[in-house]
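FORM 12-B: Structure-to-Sequence Request
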């Protein structure tokens, strides 16, 4: 456990210095020998980042003066997370953290902080609840923005962002239906329920190689909210379809599972595009993969217009922070406007690629208006002569899918070229 604590503390320190979690964590996981250790480290790091605001408040209240040793500070946050949110034996958590702290005053401070946390737990919970950034474990500016833009749902949104994300699969309709796959899961001792047209959510996450038929392409891991994209795009057999910003390929695969289309999967990152190919190979599906920038189609477009375009644009990812908990601590308020400007350019550059009568599905995994409905309304104001907004199902009447226990947060708008 001591090694896990030190590895987790080092990962947190790197991330909060500005490094992306998806780059930091794999290096740490490689230092461990067993799947159990790797799973435990991942849970500690993700959980600590989800609850970081609360951990910060607790640590500040337990210290008589500001921490002068950053590494010890991260180690103590990890140990506080374990004491509060895991089933690890408290005596083992404290012992290993004290040992990992080193000698002299560091050892004594670690012991005092963690013992006091156990004694003062109720008092510390109250202290944290009185601080918004600790109560909701999000930056103050983020909390204020969610309150302003979602006054009726802001608490639910923030609460959902602290949950462990659901483990949801997409059933490949070419290989079977949801009902039959639920039976297969039940036979394998993996309880699950249907949570979407093609979606099943397991009661508990498992390694993908434990899933019946995963290697054969029978299912893929994909959030239920993300599965709306292919359904709303509703590509028909024989159509030309562009999946812009396609990596890692979840939506690409879903589109092809639903219909025989001529699909071009575009992404600016060659390494991420390779992941699209890996996913397609597993699903035994084919698409034309193109390395290119959606904002610069003149460099890759063949001049033939598409019947459908999925514009799953880069965004703040504010709707998926429980899966990417580093995002809420690394984002800055000005980032939202920068993403919105990038999205506007992509929409303008992709629109000429769409055939008259065709539809473009604008999609983000954001909950912020400037990237979502505000972006779409601005586009329609510029394109009143050749664009109209299509109605969505009642569940998505305004395009917003706010995060909850069943799915992450997304936004969709379907635009038809008139």
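FORM 12-B RESPONSE
SEQUENCE OUT:
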């Amino acid at each position: 456990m001591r090694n896990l604590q030190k590895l987790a503390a080092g990962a947190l320190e790197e991330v909060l210095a500005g490094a992306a979690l998806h780059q930091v964590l794999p290096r740490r996981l490689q230092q461990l020998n067993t799947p159990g250790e790797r799973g435990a480290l991942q849970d500690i790091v993700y959980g600590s980042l989800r609850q970081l605001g609360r951990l910060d408040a607790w640590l500040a209240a337990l210290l008589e003066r500001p921490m002068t040793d950053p590494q010890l500070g991260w180690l103590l946050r990890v140990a506080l997370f374990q004491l509060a949110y895991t089933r690890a034996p408290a005596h083992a958590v404290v012992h290993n953290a004290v040992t990992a702290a080193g000698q002299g005053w560091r050892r004594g401070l670690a012991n005092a902080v963690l013992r006091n946390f156990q004694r003062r737990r109720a008092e510390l919970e109250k202290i944290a609840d009185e601080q918004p950034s600790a109560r909701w474990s999000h930056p103050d500016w983020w909390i204020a923005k969610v309150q302003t833009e979602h006054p009726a749902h802001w608490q639910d949104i923030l609460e959902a962002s602290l949950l462990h994300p659901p483990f949801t699969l997409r059933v490949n309709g070419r290989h079977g239906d949801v009902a039959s796959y639920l039976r297969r899961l039940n036979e394998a001792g993996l309880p699950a329920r249907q949570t979407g047209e093609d979606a099943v959510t397991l009661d508990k996450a498992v390694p993908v190689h434990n899933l019946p038929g995963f290697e054969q392409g029978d299912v893929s891991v994909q959030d239920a909210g993300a599965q709306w994209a292919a359904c709303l795009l509703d590509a028909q057999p024989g159509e030309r379809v562009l999946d812009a910003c396609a990596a890692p390929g979840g939506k690409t695969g879903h589109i092809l599972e639903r219909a025989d289309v001529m699909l071009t999967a575009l992404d600016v990152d060659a390494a991420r595009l390779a992941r699209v190919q890996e996913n397609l190979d597993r699903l035994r599906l084919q698409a034309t993969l193109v390395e290119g920038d959606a904002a610069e189609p003149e460099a890759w477009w063949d001049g033939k217009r598409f019947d459908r375009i999925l514009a799953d644009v880069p965004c703040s990812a504010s709707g998926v922070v429980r899966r990417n908990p580093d995002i809420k601590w690394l984002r800055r308020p000005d980032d939202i406007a920068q993403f919105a400007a990038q999205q506007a350019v992509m929409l303008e550059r992709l629109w000429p690629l769409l055939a008259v009568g065709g539809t473009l599905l604008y999609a983000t995994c954001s909950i912020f208006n400037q990237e979502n409905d505000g972006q779409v309304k601005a586009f329609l104001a510029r394109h009143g002569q050749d664009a109209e907004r299509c109605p969505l199902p009642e569940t998505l009447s305004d395009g917003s899918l706010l995060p909850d226990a069943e799915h992450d947060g997304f936004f969709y708008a379907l635009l038809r070229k008139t």
